Structure formats: C-alpha cells, structure tokens
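Morning!

As promised:
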Amino acid sequence: MSATTTPQAAGVAQDPAGRKRAARRGTDRSRQEARLGWYLAGPAFVILVLVTGYPILQALYDSLWSYRLTAPDDREFVGLRNYGVILTDPLWWSSLGNTVLITVVTVAVELVIGFALAMVMHKVLGWLRPIVRTAILIPYAIITVVSAYAWQYAFDLTTGFMNSVVWWVGDDYDWFANKWTALLVICLSEIWKTTPFISLLLLAGLAQVPEDMHEAAKVDGATAWERLWRVTLPNMKASIMVALLFRALDAFRIFDNVYIMTGGAAGTEVVSSLAYNQTISRLEIGLGSAVSVMLFLCVLLICFIAIKGFRVDLARARGEG
Amino acid sequence: MASRWLTRTGVVSAGVLLASTLAACGDGSSGTGTTTLNWYINPDNGGQQAIAQSCSEQSGGAYRIEALILPSDAAQQREQLMRRLAGNDSSIDLMSLDPVFVPETAEAGFLAPMPAELQAELSEGVVQGAVQGATWNDELVAAPFWANTQLLWYRQSVAEAAGLDMSQPVTWDQVVDAAEQQGTAIGVQGQRGESMTVWVNAMVESAGGQIIENPEARGPDIRLGLDSDAGRAAAAVMQRITEAGVAGPGIDNRDEAGTANLFQQDGAAFMVNWPFVYAQAQGAAEGGSMDPAIFEDYGWAQFPRMTPDEPSAPPLGGIDIGVSAFSENPDLAYEAVRCIVSEDNQASYMISDGNPAAAESVYDRPEVQEAYPMYDVIRTSLQEAAPRPQTAYYNEVSQGIQDRWQPVSAVTEQTPALSAEFIGQVLSGERLL
C-alpha cells in the first residue's frame, strides 16, 4: 500500500506558481489585494527590521573589534581575529557539542512523546477533552526559569527528593557534579517543558488528516499501525517538519536551564551561555558579539538544512492556498 | 468598496501601532525640594533599607534615600551595575559594591572622585583590609561599610575527641587529620562560583603567595603568581581533603549557605565560613529547626594556617559604598555616604544582619560583644585578612580560577600552572571563558 495524500494537498504545492501568474496578469483586484497586503504587513515588517535587523548588523560590526565595555578607549579593530580565537578554542567545540547533543536528544524524544500526546488530545472526546488538553499544556505555560528551578530543587542534594525516588543512586549522589547526569536533568527539564509545544503543532497537523481516508484504509483492511504509518504520518509530514524545525531552532538556543542548574559547571557549557559569559560577564563586547554571530550562523544553517534538505514548506503547514 | 475600507483601516491602525507615549523622566527631585538618591543595595535582612530611612530622616529633608535591591549573587550585582554605568545611567546615585569589583569600577571611571578630606575621614579607624579593598591607585574610591572575614567553625565535642587544641592556631593538615579520625567532613565551598576564588586566594595568601603579582597592570601584562610553591601548597590541601574523604557530600555544588546547612545538620564538624552562620544557627536553634545542643557545641577559631609557623591570611569580603560618576547630585550622595557608614549604623547593621563592621571601635561596644561572642576573633581575623586580587580584570581572574580549580576532586599539582596559563591566555584575548 502506498502513501495516500489528498488531492487538495497536492494542489497546494502548485498553487504559488498559479498565484504568480495571476499577479502578472494584474487585475485590479489582485493589485489592490497586494497593496493591502503591504499596508497590513508593512508596519510589522518595518518594526521587525528595526528590532532584529539592526542588532544583527550591530553585532556583526562589533565582532570585528576588540572592545571591552569598561575600557572603551582601548577599542581596536581586529578584523576576523575574534572568530579565529573562537574556532581554535576547545571550549567552543565542547559547547557546540553539548548544544547539538541537547538539541538532538530533546527534539527526538519530544517528537515521539509530543505525537502521542497529540493523538490523545485529538481522540479524547466529551467533557474530558478540555481537561486533558489543559493538563497537557500546563508545563508550556510555566516560565522556563521557574521550571528550571523546580527541576534543580528536585534533584538537589539537600532540598531534592529525587535521590529517594531513584533510590539505587544513593542518598548523597550529586546529579550536577557529573557532566552526563547534569545534561540528563537539563534534557529532562527541557523535554517536560516544551513537549506540549510540539504536541500542539502536531495536533494541528492531525486535525488536517481527512477522516474519510482513514475510513477508506480501514475498509481496505489496514491495521491501526498501518493506518498510522501509511495514512496519518504521510499526510502530516509538513506539520511534523515545521514542529521539528521550530523546536530544533529553539532547543539550539538553550540557555535558562543550563544557567540555573549548573551555570556551565561540570562541562555543561552551551553556545548561548558562552555568548553570555563573554558579553555580559566579561563585558568583552567584541568577542561576545563574535560568539553570537556564530550562534546565529548555526541557527541559519539549521534553517537551511531543514528547508532545502527536508523541503519544509512553511506555507503548506499553515494550510495556505 | 470593502477592500478600500480595509486599506484605510490598515493605514490608520498602522499609525496607531507606531504612535508611542514617552513617559516623562524624573530628574530626581520632587516638588518639596527634597532630592531623591537611589541606592542600589545587595539583598540583606532589611538592614540597609532601615539605614536608608534613618539617614533620610536625619538629613532634615535635604535628601531622601531610596533603596533598590540588586540580585543576590555578587557576580550578577556587578553585571547589572556595570551595564547601567556603561550606559551613563544617571538614576544610580549610590551603590553597595563588593570590594573585588571596586578596581574595575574605578578604572572605568564609573565612580565619582571622593574629596580628599572625606577619604581621610572614612578610612580612619577602619580595619586595614577594608581600606585596602576600597582603594585604587592610592586613593580611597569607595567608603568601607562592612568588612567580612571567614573563620574556622568547629564542633567543640568533635575537636576535643580528636585531641585538637583549639586554643592554639591550627593548620589545614591538622583539621583534615581530625576530621578523618572522627569520620566527619570539613565544610568547604567547592562550587564553581566566587566562593572558590575566596578559598583559593586565602590559601595562596596564607602560604605567602599572591594570585597576581602586579595588580595595577593592564590585562595582557598581568603576571600571575599561581604557578608557585604557594599555589602548589593550596592545591595540595585540596588533594588531601579529597584523598582523606572528608569533603562531604555534594562538595562540587556547595556554596556558603550549603556549607552552613551541612554543618547545622551535623554533616560536617568543621567548616570555613563567614560569621553569618552564627546568627543563622542561633535563629534555627531558637526556632526549633535545629537541635539547640548542636548550637551550644559551636566553636570558632582563626582561619586554618598553611604551615604551623606562619599566621593565616583569612578571606576578606564586605561591602563598600560607591558614588556613581553619573549621579546628578554627587555632593549630596557623599553626604549620604557619611551617614550610611557611621559607626552607629555599622553597629546596628552588624547586630541586625550579621555582617561585621569595618570600623574597629564597633567591636568595643557591649551590644556587639553580646550578640557576637566571637567578636575578638573576627576583629583579629579582619586585621590579618588578605583581599582578593585588586585588579580591573578581576572577573576574568576569578572565573579562570573557578574554571580550573573546580571540581576539587580533579585538582592536581599541575592545576596551579595550568590555571595560570589559562588565565594568562584569557587576559590576552586568546581564549574564551
């Protein structure tokens, strides 16, 4: 049995080309609509350029200088030297390794749990529905710093209760003294906190899978497992890819959990905390900006791989067309 | 028709969106002629706020001090103040500064120059270490308010059982031996934080060394004294604590508060810590959350020595009051500083908040002696205390130490040399931190 997609979904993919043709034909209506589009989106676009474009350019410029905030007179143009320092520093590579590890582990686990939760939210009916949905979404409503503290206190040696729950590690096992157990707690907190986000995106995708296709597959004798793999998943590929992309970008910029739980100790430094250390603690604006630019480039790379490599179609996921 | 209406609405709402209201910025003075001075304070038990209020009342309407609370962590206090000062923020008049950040703040030109006669007045009768901590380029740049020092706290019964004569100065070796023999732990701060630098510096200074040999130098020219006999002696103490198994549980994430709790809960019979632990234990014993017998058993002595013949150089901490260079009322702010650091205020602050006074005479007051039976040990400790490196690059030096000397169990005899090399590279802009 091959993957089943709806005719509408196939039509959507061709639609942008059709829209362009219509625009070229230039009817009054389409011109007016285009103008209205600019009027509506224009202010937001201008604000976006101001609040994101300007700092990005400023960071790019600052990254070419040796500039310490408390010694502005010693500012000196150093070209790409800051990037050389970063790329030859083992700390950068270990931080990048930690960040990639956290991203891959959390996104993979979240995708599986998130999908299961989305199914539950999708299937549950009646008076239970709002209760289940609310319960699943609660962690996402909690501020990351608060959830980070909650997890830290839970695993803390003096205030925590986890050592008695996970009794075999012993009473005085310090979770945050070892790199791998510290990263485990950080990942757990991250997964607990952001799985609802993924399940929310996947729920939207689930809702788009037409019920008649399920019924057709059922009539053809497909088992529940086959229906999941051959009907549901192929039809919500766009939602899954968008959920993956959004969460991967988010996970890559992880900061709060690490900052609260270990402060980068025990080899748990991540790229964002590295940027924070250089810019905010050391007040080395040049070096810190260079780290931020590197972080930005990593995020761009993830976007590029996702959109070009996996062909994530943002327009399709939004159900446009 | 509909779309034209929509277009117009779109333009109008865009205009509304862009319109913003500018809040009027206050100039610090209210209509009555009373100037408001903003004092950024480190969190405490409310003592500084009480002082702000009483000084405002004493000024006879000349000024009103508004106390604004900074984050609890010294490093975060610095981050917030530095960012605002770098932006020439005139809303800061007074600030409670940790002495280790005084050189950086002064070097950057963020502190208003202190009149010469006030420098003399504010350093008179103040313990030497506190004056040194508030001095940069031979000028007093901030007013010593309180001066902290660490003592060796011990359980009298355990020390006695171990045969340790606590009436005489003891060395780290003796304390480790006693703890090992009695099967207890030594409460030291092994967290990757400022407390690690405090400990390393005290041991290096006690062994006759210095973390930085030329503190006034600019970043790349700083010479580090860690790769020395004193540095290796400090590393050896840490190795001994690990090898003897007396570090206690959770040492790698233990700060001063964690150490105090461990000691309070009978998890360690020795600890090095600031005097706040006494008031805390007293409160816990009175409140019923701690066995009063344990509190009765509390003993105190000078910070442990590195060698039997050389006195120790205990850690020095505290708070200095600085006046911002961007304050619109520096003269009035210095008037307020005089009031804040008055001996009466230092004495009441010591009793209310458990933070030792910087003025020596305060220790002669009966109410202070009653609240702090160890007042004499604190005073002596303050006189012998050694400040942490007085450099404008303190943050790099301190974080470099925290990075390489933590966890304690990983410290070897190579650690001093490796940390010196690492900090040198960071100061030359060749490494990330």
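Chain B touches chain A through 40 residues (CB under 8 Å).

Hope this helps with the figure draft.
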